Amino acid sequence: MTDNIKICFFEPVYSSESKILILGTMPSVMSVKNGFYYSHPQNIFWRVMTEVLGEQKAPQSPEEKRNMMLKHDIAIWDVLYSCEIKNSSDASIKKPVANNLELVIKNSKISAVFTTGKTAEKLYNKLCYNKTGIKSINLPSTSPANRGNYNYEQTVEHYKVILNYL
User: Fold this and answer.
1) Per-residue model confidence as pLDDT tens digits over 72-114
2) d(CA 60, CA 66)
3) What does the alpha-carbon distance between residue 54 and residue 62 come to, in Å, rounded to a whole number?
4) CATH code where residue 159 lies
5) What is the pLDDT of residue 162?
6) SS3 category, 105
7) Predicted structure pTM score
8) Which of 24, 26, 21 is nearest to 133 (CA)?
């Protein structure tokens, strides 16, 4: 099987009031199909964020998800603009090219960057940190493929750190 070249299909979600930036690695095949970040049905990102932010109901549509993030001054995007990847396997990433994160950081109030998962953290540190100057805080992956180390409650507890920056 040959590698698939993948380009980030999603624009960053942010406003001039955004205080933190949450970065994944690349949109998964399911996220691309469903039209927004963290959209695999078994990905718990939106459930976790709903609980951490004290919202009543998890957002369903891309517009509801976008609005929830902006309401809480949170920006989301991906570390990578493009790469070669097999399906949605972060372990298979080759030839990574970073997104221009400075675009978001310079046009907002972002003072903290969070990476979701070890691959996002590694790629951010390698490709982005020297340009942003903001150390990343790693959060557990919410992907169904990478949640083995933490249960839902533990993941929520880890994500609560973002509240210190909002």
Assistant:
1) 999 999 999 887 777 766 667 788 889 999 999 999 999 999 9
2) 10
3) 19
4) 3.40.470.10
5) 98
6) helix
7) 0.90
8) 21
Q: What's the pLDDT at 25? A: 84
**Sheet order of strands, 112-116 included:** 74-78, 20-24, 112-116, 136-139
Q: Which residues of 44-63 are buried (b: 16+ CB within 10 A; e: fewer)?
A: bbbebbbbbbeeeebbeeee
Domain of 30 in residue numbering reads as: 4-165
Q: Which residues contact 153 (CB under 8 A, 6 or more apart)?
A: none
At 98, phi and psi to the nearest 5? -80, 150
Contact 143, 40 (CB under 8 A): yes
Tokens of 59: 């957002």
Q: What is the DSSP letter of 44?
A: -
Q: How far apart are CA 12 and CA 118, in angstroms?
A: 21
The neighbour count for residue 69, using CB atoms within 10 Å, is: 22
Contact of 78 with 8, CB cutoff 8 Å = yes
Q: Give me the number of domains the chain comprises.
A: 1
